[in-house]
Amino acid sequence: MAHVTSIQYEPVAEIGGGAYGTVYKARDTESGKFVALKSVRVPTDQNGLPVSTVREVALLRRLEQFDHPNVVRLMDVCATQRSNQETKVTLVFEHVDQDLKTYLERTPAPGLSPDCIKDLMRQLLCGLAFLHSNRVMHRDLKPENILVTSQGQVKLADFGLARIYSCHMALTPVVVTLWYRPPEVLLQSTYATPVDIWSTGCIFAEMFRRKPLFCGESEVDQLGKIFEVIGLPPEEEWPTDVTLSRKNFSPLMPRPITDFVAEINEQGAELLLKMLTFDPLKRISALNALEHSYFQDEETLTQTKS
Ligand SMILES: Nc1ncnc2c1ncn2[C@@H]1O[C@H](COP(=O)(O)OP(=O)(O)O)[C@@H](O)[C@H]1O
Ligand SMILES: [Mg+2]
Questions:
Q1: Which of 162, 169, 295, 298 is the most buried (most CB within 10 A)?
Q2: Could you tell me the CATH number of the domain that includes residue 116?
């Protein structure tokens, strides 16, 4: 890790303050380009940085070598020792003009065109398929963590919570922002890469609606809002490793998804439902979603039909 943060990177503005500290826009004095600096303070002892931090950084660096177009570039990692007990680790990312939240807010009425939504979705799923094929789940997908360049290129960001996916790993229970959380996380059941597909489904719907799909105020409320749309899942799909009983919810039937996402076409609606599937094992994968007829152009569709 380099030790030259403050000399090489000149802070320009604060761009976000989240769970792990402030994100700054800065200028790289060597290249003149803008970067985003994200610093994390980590405890240190005589052995140096904690193993978890070193692993996290190594993972980011390994992914970076693939140069995937839909993942934000990690340009540098710097460590500055603050005291005997603390080191500041700064991740230097390429600076991207806006996140998807801002992008959606800036889009004038009546909102994004269906073609634009399809293009953003394809890129988002390409980025996810890449992460998942490397056994990485994002776990906190939401519009604020998806960057969009002024050319409309999607780049996944905020891997602060990403871990190499492994079935036997102890997982932190609170990871995904409530509104984009899948049922298995809300129920504190076991979870894996399908969590990101659920979040992607919520974002897909939001691109049409221009407002979030499920705005719950607590875990139970969030689940209730989900069941109002997809219906209460059958008893046999309810996870067995959870404390919250299915009996706490009213026996709701699924409602037509077009009641909530009016402008979506038939194929889009079908794909959306495959993403918003209660059982994570039955939920569509990123790779299969990319093959869905929603992404095939009209010409190919007519050819396969005839
Ligand atoms: N590379 C970047 N370029 C431009 N803005 C960024 C970049 N990375 C993050 N941001 C902005 O800063 C916000 C917080 O960054 P993020 O990495 O999501 O950290 P946190 O862990 O605090 O959520 C993001 O929602 C986004 O608006
Ligand atoms: Mg974030």
A1: 162
A2: 1.10.510.10
- The Å distance, Cα 216 to ligand 2 centre, comes to 19
In this structure, the chain runs to a length of: 306
| H helices, E strands: number in the chain | 10, 10
Count the alpha carbons within 13 Å of 179 in the hemisphere toward its beta carbon: 12
Q: Is residue 193 part of a domain?
A: yes
Whether 13 lines ligand 1, by a CB cut-off of 6 Å, is: no
Percent of the chain with pLDDT over 90: 71
Are β-strands 74-81 and 86-94 bridged in parallel, bridged antiparallel, or unpaired? antiparallel
Residues 90, 182, single domain; the answer is no
Q: Cα separation of 227 and 275, whole Å?
A: 14
Residues 243 and 168 in one domain: yes
Indicate whether 52 and 175 sit together in one domain: no
Give the C-alpha separation, 49 to 54, whole Å. 7
Contact 77, 91 (CB under 8 A): yes
pLDDT 10s digits, 168-225: 344 454 444 799 999 999 999 999 999 999 999 999 999 999 999 999 999 999 999 9
- In this structure, the answer to whether residues 217 and 290 fall within a common structural domain is yes
**Amino acid (1-letter code) at residue 61:** R
Mutate-to-test residue for ligand 1 from 12, 14, 15, 89, highest number of ligand atoms within 8 A of CB: 15
Same-domain status, 129 and 86:
no
124 three-state secondary structure? helix
* Residue pair 72/93 in contact by the 8 Å Cβ criterion: yes
Sign of CA dihedral 202, 207, 213, 217: positive
| Number of domains the chain is built from | 2
Q: Tell me, using a 6 A CB cutoff, whether residue 147 lines ligand 1.
A: yes
140 as an active site residue: the answer is yes
Q: For 160, what's the count of Cα atoms within 13 Å in the CB-facing half-sphere?
A: 20
Answer yes or no: do 287 and 174 share one domain: yes
